[in-house]
Amino acid sequence: MIKDNQRYFNRLHVVIDAVVICIAYVLAWIYKFLILKDQRGLTLAQYCVALIGIIPLYLMLYLACNLYTSKRVQGRRLEGGNIVKANTIGILIVMAAFFPLRDVIEPIKYYSRWMLAYFYVINIVLEIIARNLIRWCLRKIRRKGFNLRHLIFVGYSGAAEAFIDRILANPQWGYKISGILDDNKEPGYTYKGIAVLGSTDELEKILENNRLDEIALTLALREYYKLKRIVAICEKSGVHTKFVPDYNDIIPTRPYTEDLLGLPVVNIRHVPLTNSFNMICKRAMDIVGAIVAIIIFSPVMLVTAVLVKTTSKGPLIYKQERVGLHNQTFQMYKFRSMEVQSAKSEKRAWTVRDDPRVTKVGRVIRKTSIDELPQLFNILKGDMSLVGPRPERPFFVEKFREEIPRYMVKHQVRPGLTGWAQVNGYRGDTSIKKRIEYDLYYIENWTMGLDIKILFLTFFKGFVNKNAY
C-alpha cells in the first residue's frame, strides 16, 4: 500500500515538476522580451520547441539528485541543495548542447543565452516554492491525523527509545506508533505513552489482525540471534520493514550498502564523494573555480611575489609534503612566509603565535591567507579541491592516527584549500580533535550546496582569522 501511494505521489510530482519547468521557461521569455523589451529574435512558440528536450532532461536530473524520495523526513536544506545542483547541471548541458546544434538547427543560433540564464534562476525559485508548498500541505494533513503510517516496534532497546523520541518530537512526519513487542519487558510497560503489547512470538498474530504500514526492528544487541526468524515473519506479511540497529555509536548516521554479487555490505562510513557522479560534479567545480580564482587574484599574487622576493632571501614558492587522497603524499604550494630553515627544524612543530621564523611580510600574508593562493594550482593538478579537510604533514599524520580516533577518515576525500573546520574557526594552533569532528561532518554530509556555503563563508570567516599565525 505504501509503495502504491509513493508511486502515485511520485507520478504527481513529476507532472508538477514538468508544469513548473514550463511556467519558468515562459516567464523567462516574458521577462527577457516583454518586460525588458529586448529585440525578439524568435517567437515564444519557437522557443518552446526546446522544451521537448529540456523537460525530460530536467526530470531525469531530478531523479538522479534524489528529488523524488519521500518528503516525510527529508530536510528542506538538503532538498534545496539538490534542486540547485540539478538545475545547474541541466543548464550547463543545455548550453553545451546548443553550441554544436546551432549550425544544424537554424533557429538555435538565435536563442538568447540571457533568456536561459533567467530560466535557470526562475526555475530554481519556483521549484523550491512548489516543493515547500507540497511539504507544508502534507504536514498540515498529517498533524490532523490523516496520511499517517502505522508503525510497530519489534524489540525494546536504546534504538527504540531514540526512534520514539524523534517521532514524538516531529508529529509532522505522520507516524503513529501502535506499540512494542519485546521478550524482556512485561506487557503493559510503557515508554512515553508507548506500551509493550507482548512478546515477539505474537508478531505473526498481530500482523494478521492489525493494519500496519511499517515494522521497525529495534532489537537490543544481545537479541540479534532472533533476527532471522522475525525478518521471515515480516517478509511473509508483506509489510514494509526497516532495521534500526542498536549500535548507532559504531555505524554512521547515513550508512550505505553495496551489492557484492547478492551479498549486502554495510559500509561503516557514508562518503558521498565515493559516488562517481558526485566526484565528477565536484571536480568540474574545482577546475572552473580554480581558473576563475587565479584570474581574479592574479594581481594580489603578483604583488605578493614581489614583496616576498624583495624582503627576504629564499625561494618564492615554498613546497611542503602533505598527505592527501588515499594517504598519498603530494607537494603543496604556498608563498614562502618564513625564513629558510633546515628540514629537521621545520619538522619540529607547526607555527604558533609570535613564531620567530615568520617574516614581516609572512605575518601579513598568513593572517590574510594570501600565502595559500598558490594552492589553486594544486587544485588544477588534482592534488587538492576548493573545499575539503586541510592536508597535514606526514609526521603529524602518523602522530594523530594513533592519538585521535577516526583521524584517517579525512583522507577518503581530496584535501581542500578551505574547509568546514576552517570557517568554524578551527585552523592553526587549535584543537585537532574538534577540527576532525568538523571534517568528518563535512565528509559524511557533503553536497554541492555545502561546498558553496563554505566558499561563501570563507570570504567572511576564512581569509582573516585570529588563529592564523
From TrEMBL:
Residues making up the signal peptide according to the UniProt record: none
Keywords: Membrane, Transferase, Transmembrane, Transmembrane helix
Parts of the chain that traverse the membrane: 12-32, 44-63, 83-102, 114-134, 287-308
Protein name: Undecaprenyl-phosphate glucose phosphotransferase
Entry EC number(s): 2.7.8.31
Enzyme class: transferase
Superkingdom of origin organism: Bacteria
Main location: membrane
Keyword Transferase set for record: yes
Pfam families linked to this entry: Bac_transf, CoA_binding_3
